[in-house]
Design brief:
- The protein is α+β, with helices and mostly antiparallel strands and 302 residues long.
- It folds into three domains: 160 residues, Gyrase A, domain 2, CATH 3.30.1360; 68 residues; 47 residues, no CATH class.
- Helix 2 crosses helix 3, helix 7 packs antiparallel against helix 8 and helix 8 packs across helix 9.
Length: 302
């Protein structure tokens, strides 16, 4: 049967609809639905200008300008709805981003399946010596195997106890909300998760960082592939202005300026412009913004 719609179709997102992307041993990311794309960000922004007064005509230029200057509301007009399955401890990190609508599988209503996260040997590591919430070197392969075996045994025993607590005939026959108590944070949960693009990019910027926990990072990377195809113009700007960028504060600016001036290093605006072009920057407005930043640092010789 052919379905007709009057709503805008996003070809990049369409190809991901109902495609299950495996993550970890039992998890996945699945795009259920979406609303909008790059052009809808442009439309949302231009409503502020009015038909006769707008001055920015190209979608790419406007989207990049909006993201570069942190005008966030147009990006909130694009939304994605995912079906995700992940270990419970990953889900509890995920919901720290309190900007989405979600509905999660409930152990009060349903019986929890015998699915637990067993980390691969290559991600079983000791505690970092300089990061209280990070990992250090990987353990010896034989120890990693022992860890995996003990985890499997523990998870099997915890689920057996859970089932005994539930069973009305040969067990305790407890309520599901009580019987779930022995289940560890490695048990898998799943949910529907709907969020706008602005807040998704914020989540991805944090959770794709190399310092993010591995298990949440791979979930973020799976989602990122879908978002990248769905809003390619926005994604390129996101990579350039946020994901692969760094922010520097006043003290860092002062330090850099003093180091360069101590070596009598100055630049002309023309040199900055040429170096920006050599680096691949083509937009005149962006180049001028870069010149102004260097001027603000006191490094341009007028």
């Amino acid at each position: 049967m052919e379905y007709l719609t009057r709503r805008p179709i996003n070809e990049g997102a369409e190809k991901w609809i109902d495609v299950t992307v495996p993550v970890l041993d039992h998890g996945f990311v699945n795009l259920l639905d979406y609303m909008g794309g790059d052009v809808d960000i442009e439309r949302a922004a231009r409503i502020s200008y009015g038909q006769e007064t707008r001055k920015i005509n190209e979608t790419k230029g406007l989207v990049r300008y909006l993201l570069r200057h942190e005008h966030t509301s147009p990006f909130e007009m694009v939304e994605f709805k995912f079906h995700q399955k992940m270990p419970l401890f990953v889900a509890r990190q995920w919901v720290r981003h309190r900007t989405a609508s979600l509905n999660e599988y409930s152990a009060r209503y349903s019986v929890v399946r015998d699915e637990f996260y067993i980390p691969e040997a290559g991600v079983i590591s000791v505690q970092s010596s300089d990061n209280k919430q990070g990992r250090g070197p990987e353990v010896d392969p034989s120890l990693a195997q022992e860890v995996q075996d003990k985890l499997r045994t523990h998870f099997r025993n915890s689920h057996d106890l859970y089932l005994w607590l539930l069973d009305e005939d040969i067990g305790a026959g407890l309520a599901r909300e009580i019987a779930r108590l022995p289940l560890p944070v490695a048990v898998y949960t799943e949910w529907y998760w709907k969020c706008d693009l602005h807040n998704i990019l914020h989540l991805l910027n944090l959770r794709m960082d190399k310092h993010a926990q591995y298990e949440i990072r791979v979930h973020a990377e799976a989602m990122a592939n879908i978002v990248k195809d769905s809003v390619p113009i926005t994604w390129q700007a996101f990579e350039e202005y946020q994901l692969n960028a760094v922010k520097i504060n006043e003290f860092e600016i002062t330090t850099l300026r003093d180091m360069l001036l101590a070596r009598n290093v100055h630049f002309s605006s023309e040199e900055i412009e040429q170096r920006a072009k050599n680096a691949g920057l083509t937009n005149k407005r962006e180049i001028q913004e870069m010149v102004e930043k260097v001027r603000k640092m006191g490094l341009i010789q007028e």
